[in-house]
Amino acid sequence: xxxxxxxxxxxxxxxxxxxxxxxxxxxxxxxxxxxxxxxxxxxxxxxxxxxxxxxxxxxxxxxxxxxxxxxxxxxxxxxxxxxxxxxxxxxxxxxxxxxxxxxxxxxxxxxxxxxxxxxxxxxxxxxxxxxxxxxxxxxxxxxxxxxxxxxxxxxxxxxxxxxxxxxxxxxxxxxxxxxxxxxxxxxxxxxxxxxxxxxxxxxxxxxxxxxxxxxxxxxxxxxxxxxxxxxxxxxxxxxxxxxxxxxxxxxxxxxxxxxxxxxxxxxxxxxxxxxxxxxxxxxxxxxxxxxxxxxxxxxxxxxxxxxxxxxxxxxxxxxxxxxxxxxxxxxxxxxxxxxxxxxxxxxxxxxxxxxxxxxxxxxxxxx
Amino acid sequence: xxxxxxxxxxxxxxxxxxxxxxxxxxxxxxxxxxxxxxxxxxxxxxxxxxxxxxxxxxxxxxxxxxxxxxxxxxxxxxxxxxxxxxxxxxxxxxxxxxxxxxxxxxxxxxxxxxxxxxxxxxxxxxxxxxxxxxxxxxxxxxxxxxxxxxxxxxxxxxxxxxxxxxxxxxxxxxxxxxxxxxxxxxx
Lengths: 367, 187
Prior knowledge:
Number of strands of chain B: 0
CATH architecture of the largest domain in chain B: Orthogonal Bundle
Radius of gyration of chain B: 20 Å
Number of helices of chain B: 8
Largest interface: A-B, 47 and 54 residues
Number of helices of chain A: 7
Number of domains of chain B: 2
Radius of gyration of chain A: 28 Å
Helix content of chain B: over 70%
Shape of chain B: elongated
Oligomer: heterodimer
Shape of chain A: globular
Distance between the termini of chain A: 34 Å
CATH topology of the largest domain in chain B: Rna Polymerase Sigma Factor, Chain: A
Order of helices and strands of chain B: HHHHHHHH
Number of domains of chain A: 4
Helix content of chain A: 40-55%
Strand content of chain A: 15-25%
Structural class of chain A: alpha+beta
Number of strands of chain A: 13
């Protein structure tokens, strides 16, 4: 019997899944083999630990859901302290920090004013301004060179088989983005490509099979943090018939589509998803679904093969949930998403113009 | 105060992760705890963290065969939260005086010691899980946390059949076990 079969047997034994005769045989073997006995004891302790870990994780996720539901239904409220209580509260909490900051500020101010009197140049101000202009023109030149370099340098090694997996979008300007977990199936390496055709290497931070969401981080020296995101994220559920739109990469170029929310649950009553009536193609997976206020309500992830125009999207509150669960993990990724959309009151064309810079093509390298 | 049968039933149901029971306890108690934490130098996030940790203590107690609930759930939760919050304040040295009281309390020190122990084990497992890397972590979690079967796992992770997935799971489990016991035996 090899190790795999043995450990399978031990696990079955501990879970009480062995038949009567098998159990007797196994126990006899265990009696005559102290090494096996030791293994069973250790395995037992270990399995208990994993089961406990799993149970606590499940309980935590129920707690999280309960909090969300109760809050959405207005049964519990997140209170804010008002007036003097709040100030006392803040003061007592940050007193030390404030004092340290104040003394540092004082010392720095004295130091700088001293330095200025000692070193201030006697040259007229005009010269300084000219110099600065020169520097900025140099800077401009180098940035154009950089763009050209990028154009010619194809980062993906020749011979690697690239699957044009799907779409992803930024959720934190530091380079965190989400896409559908199934897009990254079998991925050895992941690249994301922006509208200008620049590739960036990305790292898979987390895959969540149940909600079909993956968190990626762009890990590439050429990537610079983006500006504040134009779109927001909503935690509350969206109403039937709300108009929605999406952007994605079903081909080499970004494509816009619009439709409406047709059901609050997905395939077979899956409450993690919405059903949408929108036209989507392979490659649209992982793209953002936005409402008319420019808030992300979900991530597009599948369409029904038997019916045309029936598409599913996993709800955006699952993104929050995923991030919450990461908070809990050993090296928490500091992903911050802000809820407010800054493109609420502008027309659709402007919205799309703003959003498209944050939507990337996700390319998956298989070998 | 005597405990009603209904209260006992709710307490038991919490131990099996029963959504309705959890929701009713959550709804009836969260506001009190929130007030308590906010008026004793805490933030909304603190309130939520403390309350959820106390719920986990309640869950552990409900599963433990040795534990008997001798007061109302509300009193128990409040006592645990109060203790947890005092401890946190002391750690951060934010405390000069006693915290303000909102309700009656029962002694919970021993219960919390037990919770500390379990929590330590949970953290060791979490650390080990964090170290085994992908796809091991997702695979192990799919099986032991989400209780997916081997066919579902094979399909999702792209293994050709359940046996391949089983093989992979075994390799991952061996690594996890090693990492776990390395920490566990030191602790």
